[in-house]
Design goal:
Blueprint: H1 6-9, E1 13-22, E2 25-34, H2 39-50, H3 54-64, H4 71-83, H5 95-102, H6 109-128
Antiparallel strand pairs: 1-2
């Protein structure tokens, strides 16, 4: 569900391919840039969605991602990480775009569950791929 529509997922995560060289071969590995969302927040999102408190969802995301609200800072952060040999993990939090999406019909319990599962999968993938 998350990969089906670029506009859907671009509010919460982005994807790029990192170039890795291994055994004289170039391998492109998908890297997901995402907002900082703790697992417990997804359950809170569901409760707030049920009560129509979309503004509170944005407030939570804003508190958790206040370092990623300036697009230029995010770009500089990612460029610095890249120059130091790390993945570019920061994702720009666009408050207005996020609020518009959350108020849309695409934002529902199934979407929240899918997003939570993706975040958990990505965390485990990173943990076990080392």
């Amino acid at each position: 569900q998350l990969e089906s529509g670029k506009n859907q997922s671009s509010v919460f995560l982005g994807k790029y391919f990192d170039e890795n060289k291994k055994d004289n071969k170039t391998i492109y590995v998908p890297i997901y840039q995402k907002l900082n969302i703790e697992k417990s927040m997804f359950f809170t999102f569901k409760k707030l969605t049920e009560n129509g408190r979309f503004d509170k969802i944005i407030d939570l995301l804003e508190m958790q991602n206040n370092n990623y609200m300036d697009e230029e800072k995010v770009i500089n952060h990612n460029n610095e990480r890249k120059s130091n040999g790390f993945t570019q993990n920061a994702f720009y939090f666009n408050k207005n775009k996020c609020l518009d999406f959350i108020k849309s019909s695409k934002w529902n319990f199934d979407y929240i569950d899918s997003l939570m599962l993706f975040y958990e999968y990505n965390k485990l993938y990173i943990l076990y791929s080392k």
